[in-house]
Amino acid sequence: MKIYADNAATTKMSKEAIEAMLPFMENIYGNPSSLYSIGQEAKEHLEDARARVAKVLNCEAREVYFTSGGSEADNQAIISAAYAGRKKGKKHIISTAFEHHAVLHTLNKLEAEGFEIELLDVHNSGLVSAKQVEDAIREDTALVTIMFANNEIGTVQPIREIGEVCRNKGVIFHTDAVQALGHVSVDVQRDNIDMLSLSSHKFHGPKGVGVLYAKKGIRLVNIIEGGAQERGKRGGTENVPAIMGMAKAIENATADIEGYAKRLIPLRDKLIAGLKEIPYSALNGDETHRLPATVNFCFEGIEGESLLLLLDDKGISASSGSACTSGSLDPSHVLLAIGRPHEVAHGSLRLSLGEDVTEEEVDYLIKSVKEVVSYLRSISPFWRDLTEGKRTHIFAA
Ligand SMILES: *Cc1c(COP(=O)(O)O)cnc(C)c1O
Question: How far is the CA of 370 from the centre of ligand 1 (A)?
Fold first, then answer.
């Protein structure tokens, strides 16, 4: 059996998204800034795509900016809000310790420029409350940036309530909604969102394209200087084929969020219940306030990389917050942020299911993970120390 269970890393492009792109590579290849007809034709389609994305997000087309992906959108949103705040003497930024690195590394840069960054505690649950945000907001707060759904553990934040607090206090609210779109309902007006980032390849669109939504009135700072594209806020010839593919993908991904949740949540919960049967294991993040298809566990006495390699042998593509995948020896900052000790943070597994996953596949995932965990424990000196009482267990049996 072959199961791709790493949809939080990237997704397979849909046939429809691919088909939506082809005409813009074969025939309508003009530069949207050119005045002759194939240029203007491309421009019309580009603006149609913008209107369709805006409709999905419930905003105006002029509030949608196309970027090279989620990372660029995060960078531009945060830097723009920070610099706008600085002009008014505001240098305080509120975020959380478990944001994506596109957010955290941008905040590090701003800290070096003199901004004060406050990272809210995400507790054991992997959730931030609106009350925490309210208590942290000060007179000089320029921006609150909190992700909609976490990419590693899948917890979903109370975004509407957080947005309401920010709106009442007059603070710009940005959310990285890369993991949320297509999995939970996202509506920038209902959710009181001022700025939002999306990435096409996380919802079956092409890679290298994304969206920054910025509510009208917010002044964007350019990250890419150049021509007058994107209302002068993002230089560079628009990637028309990719944008057309993304517009199709975003419509498909959001067409039936309720039906998707109805089908996936029972499968997700079955997976959680099955993996919980493994002794000395724990689910990471709140059990119910989570994405319908993302599950993350820690297993004591396991190295994440070995787990991934053995699962790969069984035809399963998954991810771990540990060494190999992140390219560093540090355990996942997300797992450390929710209070997991280093030794178990190394033994984590993220399974992010596709919408077409079957019950049979979920059964196979449970069976395979159980087999691999018990095999790895049988050859682990660390596990032997635990069983001989030379080390103490962290989780319950
Ligand atoms: C994937 C991801 C990003 C980065 O998006 P790219 O388009 O790959 O740059 C940002 N934030 C989150 C939460 C993500 O999961």
Answer: 30
Model confidence pLDDT, tens digit, residues 249-297: 999 999 999 999 999 999 999 999 999 999 999 999 999 999 999 999 9
Pocket-testing residue among 76, 151, 224, ligand 1, by greatest number of atoms within 8 A of Cβ: 151
337/340 Cα distance (integer angstroms) = 7
With a 6 Å cutoff on the Cβ, whether 69 touches ligand 1 is: yes
Q: Which residues are catalytic?
A: 324
Cα 377-382-388 angle, rounded to 5 deg: 90
Which residue has the CA at smallest separation from atom 3 of ligand 1? Answer: 70
Atom number in ligand 1 closest to CA 149: 13
Which run of H or of E encompasses 143? strand 141-145
Ligand 1 proximity of 199 Cβ (cutoff 6 Å): yes
Q: Residues in the chain, how many? A: 397
Residue 234 is classified by DSSP as S
Distance of CA 140 to the CA centre of its chain: 28
- Rounded distance, CA 379 to CA 34, Å? 65
Question: Are the C-beta atoms of 32 and 66 separated by less than 8 Å?
Answer: no
Q: Is 100 in the pocket of ligand 1 (CB under 6 A)?
A: yes
Strand partners, 119: 95
| Helix/strand number for the chain, H first, E second | 15, 12
Token pair of 319, please?
Answer: 């991810």
Express each pLDDT in 195-238 by its tens digit.
999 999 999 999 999 999 999 999 999 999 999 999 999 999 99
